[in-house]
Design a protein that fits this description.
With 302 residues, this protein is α/β, with parallel strands linked by helices. 47% of the residues lie in helices and 18% in strands. It is built from 13 helices and 14 strands. The strands form four sheets. The protein has an eight-stranded parallel beta barrel, surrounded by seven helices. The chain has a two-stranded antiparallel ribbon with strand order 4-5.
Length: 302
C-alpha cells in the first residue's frame, strides 16, 4: 500500500492529502438550509450535508492529489448518520481514484485491536462470507499499548495490502507532556520511533514500510531527528497551515529524494472559501485553488 501511495504522489507531484474534517461552521449556508428543510435539525441533516460538502471538494480536487484523510471524530459526533456519511465519503473518494487515510487513532490489545484493524483496513467474516467494513487504505494507530496493540494491525496490513501510521511526535502544543519526557536520557518519542521501525520491518514494501509515522510539522528540529532515525518510514505530517507549520518546517520530514512524507491540510483547504484570498470563489473552487497553492508552496522547498 505504501508503494501505491508513493506512485500516486509521483503521478500528481503533490505530497499532500486533504483532511476531510467537516464542522457545521464549514458548511455553506445553502447546503445546510436545504438539508434542514428536508430532514429538520437532525443528525440525518448534518450527515447528508457533510457528504454533499465532501463530495464537492473531492470532485474539485481529486485530479490534483493522491489522497484524502477524513477524521472520523467529526462524523462520530453525529452518531449513526454521521458514520454513514463517513463511509459514503470513503467510498466516493476511492471511486475517484484517491487513496484514503482513515484518521481514527485506534489502539487496544488482542481481539479488540484485531477488530479495530478489521473494521478499518481489513476483512471480516459472517458465517464464512467475507464482508468489508470501512475499507480505508490506511488508518492511524495509537502505540501506547505497545506491540500487543500494533501487531494485529500489522498482520492485517500484510494480509490485505494496507497501511498504518503510528503516532510518534504529534503537532499539538501539549504533545511534549508525555512525548518529550526523558527515559534514561532519551525522549519518549524517540523510543516510540525506534519501536515503530522494528514494527515496520515486519511489513516492508520496497524502500519504505507499510508502517508509517505521524510526525507533526510544528516541531521541525524533532522532525529532522526522526527523519534521520527512520529512513525507511513514511511520515504523515499534520500541522501545516492552520496549526502554524510552514513549508520550511516541513522540509526535514522529507528524504533527499523528495519522498518520505505526505502533508495534511484540513481547514486550510476545506474552509478556504472563508479566507479573504479565496472569498470570490465557490467553496469547491476555493478548495481547488488552495490545493494548488499548497502544492506550489511545498514543492518549492523540496
Amino acid at each position: 500500500m505504501i508503494a501505491k501511495l508513493i506512485e500516486k504522489i509521483k503521478q500528481t507531484n503533490a505530497p499532500i492529502c486533504v483532511g476531510l474534517d467537516p464542522l457545521i461552521s464549514h458548511i455553506p449556508d445553502y447546503i445546510l438550509e436545504e438539508k434542514i428543510k428536508k430532514y429538520g435539525k437532525t443528525t440525518k441533516a448534518i450527515g447528508e450535508a457533510f457528504y454533499d460538502f465532501n463530495k464537492e471538494i473531492i470532485d474539485k480536487t481529486y485530479d490534483l492529489i493522491p489522497a484524502v484523510k477524513p477524521q472520523i471524530a467529526m462524523y462520530e459526533e453525529f452518531g449513526i448518520e454521521g458514520m454513514i456519511s463517513y463511509q459514503k465519503t470513503v467510498e466516493y473518494a476511492k471511486e475517484k481514484g484517491l487513496l484514503v487515510i482513515g484518521d481514527a487513532k485506534r489502539g487496544d490489545i488482542g481481539s479488540t485491536s484485531l477488530s479495530y484493524a478489521k473494521a478499518h483496513i481489513g476483512v471480516s467474516e459472517i458465517l464464512g462470507e467475507k464482508v468489508i467494513g470501512f475499507d480505508t487504505d490506511f488508518v492511524t494507530v495509537n502505540p501506547y499499548l505497545g506491540t500487543d496493540g500494533l501487531k494485529p494491525f500489522i498482520d492485517v496490513c500484510n494480509s490485505e495490502n494496507k497501511g498504518i501510521f503510528v503516532l510518534v511526535k504529534t503537532s499539538n502544543p501539549s504533545s511534549g507532556e508525555f512525548q518529550d519526557q526523558l527515559i534514561d536520557g532519551t525522549p519518549l518519542y524517540e523510543l516510540v520511533a525506534k519501536k515503530t521501525c522494528e514494527w515496520g520491518a515486519m511489513s516492508m514494501d520496497g524502500n519504505y514500510s507499510n508502517v508509517g509515522a505521524v510526525v507533526g510539522a510544528t516541531y521541525p528540529k524533532m522532525s529532522a531527528i526522526l527523519r534521520e532515525k527512520m529512513p525507511n518510514t513514511f511520515f504523515l505530517v499534520p500541522g501545516y497551515g492552520a496549526q502554524g507549520g510552514t513549508a520550511e518546517d516541513l522540509k526535514p520530514c522529507f528524504n533527499t529524494d523528495g519522498l518520505g512524507a505526505i502533508v495534511n491540510s484540513s481547514r486550510g483547504i476545506i474552509a478556504a472559501y472563508k479566507q479573504d484570498k479565496y472569498a470570490s470563489l465557490e467553496f469547491g473552487e476555493a478548495s481547488r485553488a488552495a490545493v494548488k497553492d499548497m502544492i506550489t508552496d511545498i514543492n518549492r522547498v523540496l
